[in-house]
């Protein structure tokens, strides 16, 4: 673990320090083009189980990745040792690897100076979550869970709290320089009843620690554990479901990569049309569905550039149910005459390039919500199943985005607008794309992780394929 050599007390490099470091690295370069990526930051975690803290740890590190281009050959090397000799050795290694790499016909040149959106993604109180502060938060979580779980004789509580504060920088031999600070924190809690039949779960993530209530998460997990004791088995089949925001986040992950322009233009994507063309401009979901990526959105606050320094902008993928845009990497954007929205494509040479992603995750992702709470979605359900979250999700068919997975830690029967019975868990087979056309109601959206906002949903005809004995 290497702290900044510029300031021993620093958790990560300042803009000035990052610029000085990248300038130093570039001064050693002899390749046709060079890019320097710096990641500098702190991370702290606290784990608890059996109602007590079990581990606490932290890291502070600065890593430098050098990407060298010689002709159409490219390769990278990484170090976290920042003295001149080590940096020179890393630059030389990247250049030697590049000279040995096969030519990349899709290689894109490094970028020159760019203009970036200013994003305030760093929050001091998150960076101040030291071991003592995390221990206090764990205690609040455990105390609240124990109090809420007394109806079951007590609950066993486990969880994980992870906080990070980072700076990222990109510099090229063409005078590009980008710098961004961010922070994020996640807390997840699992509660189990002593008889082993009840399990509950809750979680939250944000840039700002003050947006997370540890006691509330502990209380919700324990209440779900108590309510889920002695679950009843019902026949698998097609049911109306109320999916809590985390369950929506779990299943929607499979959809985000389908917005790749290249896959769809080449006829192998989810939104490719038989005989050629794509479904851009066509209705693919309920008209209430809008999803976009925007690093500057106040609820996302994501890094505003890719690893090769391309600025990230707002991209609306689905608007009022209409497929509006795809995500273009730099190579495919140039080929198609479109603006690039993610980093370099290709990368088939020596492992350089990269950045962004097909689904806009680089700029965060937001599924715009409605006005109703999850409780109101339940109240409007005559008969259905409430799902806390999904687990062990795997792909069945990439073209249709058909997935399979399990329900976990709180699955309940809804009758006449009320939760009436704990249910045994299910295995399910469902596509998030199909699901978006079967929506009955969209609930309020909430942050499920830093850079991710999802609503609760009530969806008809969700396919539960079999029962699962998992608690």
Write up what this structure looks like.
The chain is of the alpha+beta class and 471 residues long. It is built from ten helices and 17 strands. The chain has helices spanning 15-27, 84-100, 124-127, 131-148, 214-227, 245-256, 261-265, 330-336, 374-379, 432-435, and strands spanning 33-49, 52-70, 73-79, 156-172, 177-192, 199-206, 237-243, 291-293, 315-319, 322-323, 365-367, 383-397, 402-415, 418-422, 426-430, 439-449, 452-467. The strands form two sheets. The chain has a six-stranded antiparallel beta sheet. A five-stranded mixed barrel has the order 7-12-13-15-17. A hairpin with a 2-residue loop joins β1 and β2 (52-70). α4 runs parallel beside α5.
List keywords for this structure.
alpha+beta, 6-stranded antiparallel beta sheet, globular, 17 strands, disordered N terminus, 5-stranded mixed beta barrel, 10 helices, 36% strand, 471 residues
What is the element layout, followed by pairings?
Blueprint (H helix, E strand, L loop, with lengths): L14 H13 L5 E17 L2 E19 L2 E7 L4 H17 L23 H4 L3 H18 L7 E17 L4 E16 L6 E8 L7 H14 L9 E7 L1 H12 L4 H5 L25 E3 L21 E5 L2 E2 L6 H7 L28 E3 L6 H6 L3 E15 L4 E14 L2 E5 L3 E5 L1 H4 L3 E11 L2 E16 L4
Parallel strand pairs: 7-12, 11-17
Antiparallel strand pairs: 1-2, 1-4, 2-3, 4-5, 5-6, 7-17, 8-9, 8-11, 9-10, 12-13, 13-14, 13-15, 15-17, 16-17
Helix pairs in contact: 4-5
């Amino acid at each position: 673990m290497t702290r900044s050599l510029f300031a021993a007390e620093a958790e990560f490099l300042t803009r000035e320090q990052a610029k000085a470091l990248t300038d130093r690295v570039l001064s050693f370069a002899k390749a046709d083009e060079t890019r320097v990526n710096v990641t500098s930051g702190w991370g702290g975690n606290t784990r608890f189980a059996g109602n007590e803290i079990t581990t606490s740890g932290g890291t502070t590190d600065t890593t430098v990745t050098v990407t060298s281009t010689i002709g159409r050959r490219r390769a990278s090397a990484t170090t976290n040792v920042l003295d001149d000799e080590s940096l020179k050795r890393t630059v030389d290694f990247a250049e030697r690897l590049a000279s040995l790499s096969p030519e990349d016909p899709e290689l894109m040149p490094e970028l020159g100076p760019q203009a970036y959106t200013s994003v305030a993604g760093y929050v001091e109180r998150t960076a101040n979550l030291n071991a003592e502060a995390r221990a206090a938060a764990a205690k609040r979580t455990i105390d609240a869970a124990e109090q809420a779980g007394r109806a079951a004789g007590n609950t066993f509580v486990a969880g994980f709290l992870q906080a990070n504060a980072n700076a990222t920088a990109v510099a090229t031999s063409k005078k590009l320089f980008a710098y961004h600070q961010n922070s994020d924190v996640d807390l997840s809690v699992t509660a189990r009843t002593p008889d082993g039949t009840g399990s509950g779960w809750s979680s939250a993530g944000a840039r700002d620690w003050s947006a997370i209530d540890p006691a509330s998460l502990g209380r919700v997990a324990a209440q779900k554990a108590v309510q889920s004791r002695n679950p009843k088995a019902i026949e698998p089949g097609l049911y109306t479901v109320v999916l809590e925001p985390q369950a929506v986040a779990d299943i929607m992950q499979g959809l985000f990569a389908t917005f790749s322009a290249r896959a769809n233009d080449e006829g192998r994507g989810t939104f490719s049309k038989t005989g050629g063309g794509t479904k851009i401009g066509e209705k693919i979901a309920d008209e209430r569905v809008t999803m976009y990526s925007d690093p500057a959105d106040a609820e996302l606050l994501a890094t505003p550039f890719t690893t090769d320094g391309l600025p990230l902008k707002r991209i609306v993928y689905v608007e009022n149910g209409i497929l509006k845009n795809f995500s273009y990497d730099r190579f495919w954007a140039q080929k198609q005459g479109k603006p690039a929205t993610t980093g370099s494509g290709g990368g088939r040479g020596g492992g350089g390039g990269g950045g962004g992603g097909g689904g806009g995750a680089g700029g965060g992702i937001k599924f715009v919500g409605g006005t109703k709470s999850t409780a109101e979605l339940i109240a409007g359900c005559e008969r259905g199943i409430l799902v806390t979250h999904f687990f062990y999700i795997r792909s069945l068919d990439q073209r249709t985005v058909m997935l399979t997975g399990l329900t976990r830690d709180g699955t309940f029967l809804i009758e006449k607008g009320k939760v009436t019975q704990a249910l045994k868990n299910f295995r399910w087979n469902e596509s998030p794309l199909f699901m978006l056309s079967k929506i009955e109601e969209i609930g309020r959206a909430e942050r499920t992780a830093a850079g991710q906002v999802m609503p609760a949903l009530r969806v008809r005809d969700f396919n539960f394929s079999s029962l699962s004995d998992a608690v």
